[in-house]
Structure formats: C-alpha cells, structure tokens
Amino acid sequence: MQIDNRKQALQDKTVRISCVVPVFNEEALVDSFFEALQAKLLELTNTFEIIAIDDGSQDNTVKKIAALPKKYHVKLIALSRNFGKETALTAGLEHATGDVAIILDADFQHPLEVIPTFLTHWSEGYNMVYGVRENRDNESSIKRNFARLFYWLMTKITKIDIPNNAGDFRLLDRKVVDAINQIQERTRFMKGLYAWVGFKKLPVPFTVQERAAGKSSWGLARLTELALTGITSFSDIPLRVWGLIGFVISLISLVYAIYIVTVTLIFGADLPGFPSIIVALMFFGGIQLLSIGILGEYIARIFTEVKQRPKYLIEKKYGFED
Ligand code: UDP
Ligand code: MG
C-alpha cells in the first residue's frame, strides 16, 4: 500500500517506520542504543519496528537484544555467522515491512536527531534521503585519502553517480526498498546499489559522532576488499582497457620495428641492445600478470555469483511472531 499524502501521514503519525540496524559485537551499546532509538521513533510515529541484524557477533550482543523489553519493538535476525555489513543490511531490508526504511549504525555515530529531517524530506516527495558526512576528521588520514581516491576512481570509471561521503545512513521509501530487494547479486556493494536503483534523492549533511564504545570493524584490508567489490560490480573498464593498452603497445612496437630495420639497412647491423631487451621483457611480463590478475578479480566474482548460494543464513529470529 502506497501512502498518497505523505505530509498528512507524517502529521498524523501514521507512517510505518522500519529501522534497520546491523550489529556486530556491540554488546556495550545495544541497551542504550535501542532505548534511545525507540524513544526517538515514539516522537515520530505510532507504528514502527526496529530490525536488528546480528552479523555473527562473538560477544553477548544477541543475548542482550533478545532480552530487551517488548515495548522497544525490536525484532532480531541473528545470522549464522559474520556475513559483513552489506549482507546484514540486505537481510534487514528484506524483512522490513514499513512505508519507509531507515538504515543506521548501532554505535551512535549516526545522530538520531537527523531522522525527523529525513522524514520531512520524504514527505516532500523524495524517495531516498541520505546522510552526507560533513566531517571525516575522526578518521585516520590514510582512510580519508583512500576514500578520496576511491570516489575519484568510481566517478571516472563507472556510469553510476555515487555521492562523496555518503554512507548507509539513509531513509528509503517502500519503492526503493522493493527495488533493492529485487537485486539478487551475492557480492553486494550497497553504496553502488543505492545509486544504481535511481529514484528521486536528496542529500542531508550531518556530523559524524565519535563511536560511543567498542571499536570500528573496518580496517584497511576490509576497506580495500569493499573498494574492489565496488569497482568490479559497477565497472567493466578494468577488463576492457587491456584491449586499448595492447593496441597502443603494438603500434609502438611496429614503429620501433620499422625504425630498427631502417637503421640496420642504412648503417649496418651494429645493434647493441641487451639492456633494452631485458627492460622490454620485464615490462611485458609485468603488464601481462597485471591484466591476468584483473581478469582473475572478475572471474572470482563470477564464480561467487554462479554458485547461487543463499546471500545469508539465519540462525534465529526473535520478535517476528506478532
Ligand atoms: N557491522 C556489521 N557487520 C560487520 C561490521 C560492522 O553489521 O561485519 C555493523 C556495526 O555493528 C555497526 C555498523 O555496521 O552498527 C558500522 O560498523 P563500524 O562502526 O564498525 O564501521 P565504521 O563506523 O567505522 O564505518
Ligand atoms: Mg561506526
């Protein structure tokens, strides 16, 4: 059922809100976070659900969420192991039933005060309202520069427009949730999928808070993996560029061959050339390995897709019965 008059629904507090919250080893925060979230949601609507997706936590996160008071309306999906945040979000969105879904982190880095702004813009007709971080200074400069390089590369080699510094903190209308749920890819890069589905979008700046407790689970290795997923899922240029490189190199070799033949014919066969042969050999060896490696990146992902394994497995669900 689509809401015809969003403004009216918002005023009447009848918008059904689904909050999708991935949690991974957040035992220190779940109590305070879900309490704060439910207090915020109560200000905004009479019907809401909070869907917590436990992404294979090793600590007491699941126990603590299952023990939360019923009035919090927290439903829990406990995945059978750690599938990664992108997959946890996928599980959450597939279970969300509301008119809108709001995605946010459980570590208080995404300020709850922004949620009303999200809803206001939604009521004005936007189908996706996304938070854009105004500050990245609580991150290391390596992470920051890495992100800059990644966004620069993505705009150059993909056709989709992924906004800078926008993360998973966003509101999605039912239409968008349904669209994303149709996507059956195994290797999921959510930031790309949000952009790929289209729909009328609006950015909202927000200030990233410090993590309230615990620590971030995104090291440089995981971020690199995510970046590779993003590039290989949304661009085929790394695959196709080798045709062009090969063509250019062949052209250069041809010109050089003509030059050598001419010089030999005119000046005789005095050809010193050992170092240049070695350099050329290493250059082409390197280029060939690089291109094979890039082929491998894509083939590995094709492999993952064709196996058709389920995107995630659920160990337990709580709170879905009513
Ligand atoms: N998270 C998850 N699975 C993971 C890693 C993280 O569900 O494998 C959750 C985590 O509990 C948090 C959110 O994703 O709610 C963001 O994670 P984190 O704070 O570690 O990332 P950062 O804020 O540093 O980007
Ligand atoms: Mg965080």
Fold and architecture overview:
The mean pLDDT is 88. This protein has helices at 6-11, 30-44, 61-66, 85-95, 115-123, 141-157, 174-182, 190-197, 220-234, 237-267, 274-307, and strands at residues 17-23, 48-54, 74-79, 100-103, 128-133, 166-173, 201-206, 314-318. Helices cover 50% and strands 15% of the residues. It folds into 2 domains: 3-215 and 309-318, Spore Coat Polysaccharide Biosynthesis Protein SpsA, Chain A, CATH 3.90.550.10; 237-306. It is α/β, with parallel strands linked by helices. An 8-stranded mixed sheet has the order 7-5-6-4-1-2-3-8, with helices on both faces. Helix 6 (141-157) packs parallel to helix 9 (220-234). It contains 11 helices and 8 strands.
Write down how many β-strands occur, each being a DSSP E stretch of 2 or more residues. 8
Distance N to C terminus: 20 Å
The radius of gyration computed from the alpha-carbon positions, rounded to a whole number of angstroms, is 25 Å
CATH topology of the largest domain: Spore Coat Polysaccharide Biosynthesis Protein SpsA, Chain A
What binds here, in terms of ligands, is: uridine-5'-diphosphate, magnesium ion
Number of domains: 2
Query: Helical region count?
Result: 11
Given the C-alpha coordinates, what overall shape results?
A: elongated
The level of helicity is 40-55%
- What pattern of helices and strands is seen along the backbone? HEHEHEHEHEHEHHEHHHE
Strand sequence of the main sheet, in spatial order?
A: 7-5-6-4-1-2-3-8
SS content category: alpha/beta
Compute the average pLDDT. 88
